[in-house]
Every structure is written in structure tokens, then in C-alpha cells.
Amino acid sequence: MDATTVLAEISGSIATVGYGLAAIGPAIGVGIVVGKTIEGVARQPELAGRLQVLMWIGIAFTEALAFVGIATGFIFGF
Amino acid sequence: MSAAPRDPADRTPTSNPVLRRALLWSGVLAAVIAVVGGVVGFVVAGTEGLVSALLGTLIAVGFMGITAASILIANRFAGSDLFVGAFFGIVLGGWLLKFILFIVLVVLLRGAPWLDPMVLFIAIVAGVLGSLVVDVLVVAKSRLPYASDTKLPPAPSDD
Lengths: 78, 159
Fold this sequence. Notes:
Helix content of chain B: 55-70%
Site (Reversibly protonated during proton transport) (chain A): 63
Shape of chain A: elongated
Largest interface: A-B, 31 and 46 residues
Transmembrane segments (chain A): 12-34, 54-76
GO cellular component, one term (chain A): plasma membrane
Helix content of chain A: over 70%
Strand content of chain A: under 5%
Radius of gyration of chain B: 21 Å
Domain V-ATPase proteolipid subunit C-like (chain A): 15-76
Number of helices of chain B: 3
Structural class of chain A: mainly alpha
Number of strands of chain B: 0
Number of strands of chain A: 0
Oligomer: heterodimer
Family (chain A): Belongs to the ATPase C chain family.
């Protein structure tokens, strides 16, 4: 067996890597959304209500991908 | 949104009515998807399909609604010194808890003999996408005052 094959060998299900990726992407996205909301509210506290709604829409779109990504666990293997 | 005069001492953020309306319409959407998905699931995969469609809709719309519900709960702390910390703690804590619950559900429900995995997956995707559409429609149709939570100084008088 040559070196490339040894290095590239994976045992177990590659699908689990996908579930990790499905969690990490939205985590970064929600971190950015919430962080920017904190910045906005710190600058203009009177806009808190408006910014909360925008933050909520941002979180909803970001987490939708995570849900679909992790829900593939129902149809693909571990 | 009604233009009812607000009590000046009321520090509740004005996002509450929008979020409440979004939760309400998400519930309506869940009922519609559950009925349509249940019928399609029953035709495609019998009783297992029916159960899967109902469960998938419940999971998707329920978990998507947790964000709005957590913001509503966190807004009860409005006006307190701990508001910012409590707000982001509750919203992000709820988010984390939701995903842990969802992963646990996937692990538990996978391979269950009384479920049809494909119907369940499609019901979850339909619920997530439909809930996004409802959220965007509710926000687009809502009117939030531009400077909502501000306190104006008393008007000068000429006396």
C-alpha cells in the first residue's frame, strides 16, 4: 500500500463529518449575526426592538441550513 | 401593528408583537403542512408515512419557533440591569439547547420501525422552508417604528 492510500484511509462513516460541518457553519453564522446585533444595540439602544427582529430573521435563515444538514441523518447513515 | 400609545415607563422592546404574530402564523402553517403532509405521507407510505409527516412537521416548526419564543421570554427582563446579558444568554442558550435536542432526536428516531425516513426528512425540510417564508412575510408586513424604544424629553411650554 502506497503512502497516499495510507494517509487517505478513513474508517467509519464519512457522513459524520458532514454533520460536524452542518453544525459549525451555522454556529459561525449565528455568532456573526448576534455579535453585530450587540454592536448595533450598543451604538443605538433605541433601535433594540427593530434590531431584535432583524437578528431573529438572520438566525432563522442561518439555522435552517443546520436543520436540513443534520436532518439528512434520517436518510443517510452514521 | 396597532398604534396604541405606550406607557413611557414601558421598556418592553417593540419587537414583541411581531414575534408573537410570527409564532401564531407558524402554528397555522404547521397545521396546514401537517394535514397536507399527512395525506401525502399516508398515500405514499401508509400509517408510517402519516406518523412521519406529523412528527417531521412538529419537529421543524417547533424548533424554528423556539428562537422567537426565546426572544419573547428574554424580553421579559427588559429594563433590568441584567437585560443584555440575560437576553443573549437566553436566546443563545435556547439555540444551543435546541440543536442538542435535535441531534439527540435524530439519534433516537433513526431506524425506528414506525417511521418512514424519507417522508420524515421531506416533512422537516418543508416545515423549515415554510416557516422561513412565514417569518419573512410577517416581518415584511409588520410596521416597526424607526426609533421605537426611545424616551423623548418633555415638550417645552410657553407659559
